[in-house]
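Progress note, project year one: complex with heme C.
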Amino acid sequence: MQRTLQRTSAFVSLAVGLLLFMLTLRLAGMPAPATAEQLFNQKCAACHAEDGSGKTAIGKNLKLRDLRSKAVQKQSDQQLYDIIAKGKGSMPGYSSELSKADIEHLVGYIRELAKKQRK
Ligand code: HEC
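Model obtained:
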């Protein structure tokens, strides 16, 4: 009886320890990557609006083109990438702040916004 109890408690503390260990790994080492949508809403929507329309106070001031418009969408992925990475006019560049992959995902997200609007 005593032995079984000891074994059970050893097993329980091992399991709890393992669980805590995995939890720490998750919290410390591997933050969930931000989705393109979250990135856009955090970093771009202040000017471009969450739907990409540019209808924000700042956007109107800067006379932003709707990111979903033909004029913007007809540019290649590379052109859009360069604008986001290097900036253009009053828009700051994001190459020091965002990874290459992040910027690529943002280009994809801008294409998605246009598709969403057409629906
Ligand atoms: C401070 C306001 C501001 C922020 C923040 C901002 N932009 Fe811009 N963005 C601009 C302005 C102004 C232009 C127009 C530049 C020009 O044509 O002179 C522009 C242009 C663009 C264009 C090209 C559109 C066109 O008219 O051809 C893209 C694509 C774009 N922004 C994406 C983004 C993305 C993605 C982010 C977030 C990582 C972002 N912008 C953040 C102000 C901003």
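The chain has a mean pLDDT of 89.
Residues 43-44, 46-48, 58, 62, 64-65, 67, 72, 80, 83-84, 88-91, 94, 106, 110 surround heme C (CB under 6 Å).
No further modelling is planned for this target in the current period.
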